[in-house]
Amino acid sequence: xxxxxxxxxxxxxxxxxxxxxxxxxxxxxxxxxxxxxxxxxxxxxxxxxxxxxxxxxxxxxxxxxxxxxxxxxxxxxxxxxxxxxxxxxxxxxxxxxxxxxxxxxxxxxxxxxxxxxxxxxxxxxxxxxxxxxxxxxxxxxxxxxxxxxxxxxxxxxxxxxxxxxxxxxxxxxxxxxxxxxxxxxxxxxxxxxxxxxxxxxxxxxxxxxxxxxxxxxxxxxxxxxxxxxxxxxxxxxxxxxxxxxxxxxxxxxxxxxxxxxxxxxxxxxxxxxxxxxxxxxxxxxxxxxxxxxxxxxxxxxxxxxxxxxxxx
Amino acid sequence: xxxxxxxxxxxxxxxxxxxxxxxxxxxxxxxxxxxxxxxxxxxxxxxxxxxxxxxxxxxxxxxxxxxxxxxxxxxxxxxxxxxxxxxxxxxxxxxxxxxxxxxxxxxxxxxxxxxxxxxxxxxxxxxxxxxxxxxxxxxxxxxxxxxxxxxxxxxxxxxxxxxxxxxxxxxxxxxxxxxxxxxxxxxxxxxxxxxxxxxxxxxxxxxxxxxxxxxxxxxxxxxxxxxxxxxxxxxxxxxxxxxxxxxxxxxxxxxxxxxxxxxxxxxxxxxxxxxxxxxxxxxxxxxxxxxxxxxxxxxxxxxxxxxxxxxxxx
Lengths: 312, 314
What we know:
The structure holds 2 protein chains of 2 kinds.
Chain A: E1 2-15, E2 18-31, E3 35-39, H1 46-54, E4 61-69, E5 72-73, H2 79-85, E6 90-93, H3 107-118, H4 123-136, H5 142-146, H6 155-168, E7 173-177, H7 185-202, E8 205-210, H8 213-219, E9 222-227, E10 230-236, H9 237-242, H10 247-254, H11 289-293, E11 299-301, E12 304-306
Parallel strand pairs in A: 3-8, 3-9, 6-7, 7-8
Antiparallel strand pairs in A: 1-2, 1-4, 4-5, 9-10, 10-12, 11-12
Helix pairs in contact in A: 3-4, 3-6, 4-6, 6-7
Chain B: H1 2-29, H2 34-43, H3 50-59, H4 66-78, H5 92-127, H6 132-146, H7 149-163, H8 175-205, H9 208-215, H10 220-258, H11 263-273, H12 276-304, H13 306-309
Helix pairs in contact in B: 1-12, 2-3, 5-6, 5-8, 5-10, 6-8, 7-8, 7-10, 8-10, 9-10, 10-11, 10-12, 11-12
């Protein structure tokens, strides 16, 4: 059973230069207790997808389509109803730990404030629960850290605080937005471990947004590959990461250091003024005239959904 | 935190010394012979004799080197002795201290009014960016910042005192008397506060931690007041503090319009009467108050920004 079903999600930024389609007709399902990874290069719209689910995007954005979560369409909820979903049903583990904590509020309060508001928890109860989370997340001397401000902590500690914020509300779905971005190998391994622990402890589903294929491989049951605002391939992680069908996914794998470090020629297209045909057409080695003209549908092919007319 | 305060205090001493040096130089940089000017103020232009001028030169030790004069004057000043008025002969310090409360009352009332108008207006303008509220607040701020306060003061008197008869034209004492002068003085600051609150809030609202706060499911009001405003206050308080100095400056004009018995009016009256020791005293007093206000701002800053408060540990 799906916990979250996204249908025809299209997110458009209205900029001075025109309309930017960051997400284009996206369909995605996340089953209870499963982890889904969204991979793709910078600027392919994967973070926007995560933000669209919680409706955390700026005001110059319009989102259309449907996002069903436990029989509610998130896109039609009022601000009040949405507040009840955020943090306690669907939580976010934000991108950059160094800027995602409020610098003038003590970390303890940043962890508990949501609980005190949503669950009408007493401050002492909320405090106990937050400290318990920090202990589970192996934060050294949690009682002391609880009283400190973000600038007194290291990056790894801030990440743990943010992790604690995201799970203290016991959400059913956790959206982790590029949790390993800009981290060194040691910290990256720690974060992967942290995420594994988070989903194990809470039983939550995970939507992992990352450009790091290795992290996705370790954490996800299913993987969606995004390119230029579209999901171009979706299927079981094992299958997508070892025998991909789409030429872009193949290129992505071939560009990994231990797979030969062979980059895809060209660069990803602008999301402004998009073409109708396959978005990968200009860079594709197997392109045909038919790819350029008509929109390419997402088709079932060897156990994967693929948006390609000539998949291997 | 202690280190930060100690450094601020040490700096304060240097700045205050600088202020005294500048104030003292005023007397000597002003065109003309100080002894002659003192004599002129004391006896009037028509009864001036060379003997009187020379006598004053000796009395006031104006014949010794400037550096000696400065040190001598500084010693007196540091003991709270600002000399005596050239006109009335009363101690300058006494006069300043009797007048100061009126000016502080006016300045604080103006500050209060400007914050009560500016901060909520700025928050609303930022929260509803590009809405009718935003345009109204920005137009109002533009008007208030452009209007010179002597003109605004007269206009307010015309409307509220003469036409409507709600408030007294001038006078001192009671809440009703302070409303018009405080409004006149505070209008410009209210405009600056509005614009600054708005831009500061808009900047903070784009930060990642605001997204984090929203993702926790906090009500928008809590995001605004607890998460955004606390951060937006940090630059705001600096500018308000600096503007407080300009408020003191503004009292010179506003007190004259409303016949407010404060330091600003004392200063203007002293200038017209060529009462040099009084002018010197007032200028020095304004200077020191300005410096102290800045120290106060730094202390508030420290309270608002934990990164400064805990500086010592890192």
